[in-house]
Amino acid sequence: YPSEFLMQKLTEDNQIPVHLHVSVSLQYVAGLKGNDLVEFFHGNIAEVENEELRHLMWSSVLFYKTPNVEVMACVLLSTKAIYFLLDDSFIHADEHQSDFWNKENLDYDNSSFHLSCCFVLKLNDLQSVNVGLFDQYFRITGHSADHIVTCLTRDSYNTHTFIQQLMAVLSLLARTPSPEPVDKDFYSEFGRKMENYELIHSSRVKFIYPNEEEIGDLAFLVAEKMDGLTNLQSLNILLYVLGFQVNHVEGSAQNTSLLQPKTLILTSSDLFLFDEDYISYPLPEFAKEPPKRDKYQLADGRRIRDLDRVLMGYQTYPQALTFVFDDVQNQDLMQNLTLDHFGE
Fold this sequence. Notes:
Elements: H1 4-13, H2 24-30, H3 34-45, E1 53-63, E2 66-78, E3 81-86, E4 117-122, E5 128-131, E6 138-141, E7 148-152, H4 156-170, H5 186-195, E8 198-200, E9 206-208, H6 212-225, E10 237-248, E11 257-267, E12 270-276, E13 296-303, E14 307-312, E15 321-325, H7 333-341
């Protein structure tokens, strides 16, 4: 252990997305390759001696206790746990959640080295995995509010790969099987599970996928925001993608831009940007009250007919798109001119 193929795969996956900035400590981790990466894992992260590193992924993450702070993390999957190696800036990003992280022995100012914080979710504590719409993100749920993390991969391939690796590792766990039903009918049992797109793994961890109702609810919400749309049946959501809205920072020393997470939804007639709550829904079993905000909050919406041009950058993935709209006070000029000219 480990095999040459796994070493090569870990090295290839150990790349920070180019559009996201991380601390010096995580840049060091991203520079490790092959055997150095495995030794780093066993020497600094692994909690037991005989666990194996199986998968590595860089992703933005959200914690249930700090739903407004999206932070970059190196996600390491082993045969015992999921480790989230976090940017040190996150530890003091939200002072109101000081009880979430133990800060007693952390001395930032006098430290001569760069600190990283590691959040550990043991596989034995894992209860369910909720996969987001179109595999753009997934939420891992443990037994308490402290053990709920959403990985915003913004990439269906990364989501699919991680879920497959997680299922493979969970298959190694020895758990007491749940009691079998008295009269087990294969067809009815299979149908019952798939009704809610819920797959119960042999380790008793639930993998929950979005069903058609979620798309329907989203279509209804979008229809409410569109003027004059009465027929919901004619509304088709053509594209749902998690991205960033780019806001350039004026007066900064460097030509920096602020990336604000947004959900882009394209229909046949409109383009919408939503602020989406990726961590609170569906409600965890221990939640005593609904979240403080709705799952989708409209940030901006424009008609496709008002789209004048789309500007594309020449950089490699991720691609930057600029949408230029030619709408004046959201007024339909042709309609108004017609009314004025022909009277009633």
